[in-house]
UniProtKB/TrEMBL annotation:
Keyword Protein transport carried by entry: no
Full protein name: C1q domain-containing protein
Organism in which the protein naturally occurs: Ameiurus melas
Annotated compartments: Secreted
Alphabetical keyword list: Secreted, Signal
Transmembrane found in the keyword field: no
Domain C1q: 101-239
Signal peptide interval: 1-19
GO cellular component, one term: extracellular region
Pfam families in the cross-refs: C1q
Matching InterPro entries: C1q_dom, Cerebellin_Synaptic_Org, Tumour_necrosis_fac-like_dom
Amino acid sequence: MTALVFLVFSLYQCTLVQGADVLPPEVQHGYGDHSLVSGIVRELGEIKSVLKDQKVLLEEIKKGRTDGNACSTEIQYELKELKSTVADQKVKLETLQKQLADKPNVAFSASLFGHGGETVGGYATEEILKFQKVFTNIGNAYSPITGVFTAPVKGVYYFGFSAFANGKSSMGVHLRKNGNQVVATYDYNSNHKDVNGANRAVLILEKGDEVYIGLWSQLHIFDSHNSVSTFSGFLISPM
């Protein structure tokens, strides 16, 4: 198509420039069949119009190719960015899955007795409370024999406890980490009524750190089948 347009355009140029050599003598000198002259002029006009249309079409084709290439380049760039994002998300997902797979499951919950109704205390020195009725002990980090929780891994842990005393008894217990008091709850029963308290803490523990509930000297704690005195904890996140 381009070659044809070029050929016609060349003929048109030659006709315009060398019209005297191409046209018949009668046309050159202004005599002869005027209809022939008019026909030639008309045909030249039509050729000029066709050439103009072809030029516009050619420009549109060129522009279309340019726009198409630009569009293709943009799409390829966006696809590349999308592939990169997907690859990054895949790496993050695999990392999270590995962390979840490697994360140890640690959780426990127990009450002091969980049966009947019994009060202990009044000791001359502080005693470690042994919460014997175990509800949950995932990871076996809590020992109902010693009453001590031993951290299996370094991490952030949550601990909570509650304590109850009835009648004339005063109650006082605290949470200790490696022998050091962290938080406590107590109530000196001056009204001779049932008393209770609770507290909680989030701690960073090293592997092997010990956490337990201590009963203050001379004070008491009560538990029954209602499990009103409890000790619980779990690993929030390893470090």
